[in-house]
């Protein structure tokens, strides 16, 4: 049984436990749902690894495949994971460049959660011999999280990985 009470955001959830969930194949930010963060007294990272992300090239309509990494330091809200799964699935027929997808995801999560800090990294499989791995981040302005965001941006991928699995 959950240690959470329904007053702590569980009443607002419509997708978790719903056996009649519809999977939208068109971009659907409205499916995102949040729950209360019960640990606002500390900083901690929440990380989602989404290895089955797909979208479409806006010009050719060809599919693009990626692992999407989403990490954030919550404030008052957490994203409910089933709603995040359905949201990411909604990009299936969405035509946008890789860089746009990661920024759209980050912007939608900022709008939903107002996190202290967030970063989104899309590691796309190669097409035409080139992989594109856009990364973006945000730290709440005027706070130490803005400084963290600037530091992580300036030091991101300073030691690039060896690509041997794609």
UniProtKB/TrEMBL annotation:
GO terms for biological process: tRNA queuosine(34) biosynthetic process. It catalyses: 7-aminomethyl-7-carbaguanine + 2 NADP(+) = 7-cyano-7-carbaguanine + 2 NADPH + 3 H(+). One of its GO terms (cellular component) is cytoplasm. Substrate binds at residues 79-81, 98-99. SUPFAM superfamilies: Tetrahydrobiopterin biosynthesis enzymes-like. The keyword NADP applies. Its main location: cytoplasm. Its EC number is 1.7.1.13. It is found in: Cytoplasm. The keyword Membrane does not apply. One of its GO terms (molecular function) is preQ1 synthase activity. Keywords: Cytoplasm, NADP, Oxidoreductase, Queuosine biosynthesis. The active site is at 57 (thioimide intermediate), 64 (proton donor). Pathway: tRNA modification; tRNA-queuosine biosynthesis. InterPro entries: GTP-CH-I_C/QueF, NADPH_dep_7-cyano-7-deazaG_red, QueF, QueF_type1. PANTHER family: NADPH-DEPENDENT 7-CYANO-7-DEAZAGUANINE REDUCTASE (PTHR34354:SF1). NCBIfam families: QueF-II. Belongs to the GTP cyclohydrolase I family. QueF type 1 subfamily. HAMAP family: QueF_type1. This is NADPH-dependent 7-cyano-7-deazaguanine reductase. It comes from Bhargavaea beijingensis.
């Amino acid at each position: 049984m959950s240690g959470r009470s329904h007053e702590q955001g569980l009443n607002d959830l419509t997708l978790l436990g719903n056996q009649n969930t519809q999977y939208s194949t068109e971009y659907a930010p409205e499916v995102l749902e949040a729950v209360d963060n019960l640990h606002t007294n500390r900083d901690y990272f929440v990380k989602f690894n989404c290895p089955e992300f797909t979208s479409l090239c806006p010009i050719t309509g060809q599919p693009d495949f990626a692992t999407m990494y989403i990490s954030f330091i919550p404030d008052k809200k957490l994203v409910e994971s089933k709603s995040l799964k359905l949201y990411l699935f909604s990009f299936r027929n969405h035509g946008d460049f890789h860089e746009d997808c990661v920024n759209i995801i980050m912007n939608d999560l900022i709008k939903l959660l107002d996190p202290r800090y967030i970063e989104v990294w899309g590691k796309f499989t190669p097409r035409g011999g080139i992989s594109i791995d856009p990364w973006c981040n945000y730290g709440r302005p005027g706070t130490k999280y803005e400084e963290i965001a600037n530091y992580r941006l300036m030091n991101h991928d300073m030691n690039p990985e060896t690509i041997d699995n794609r």
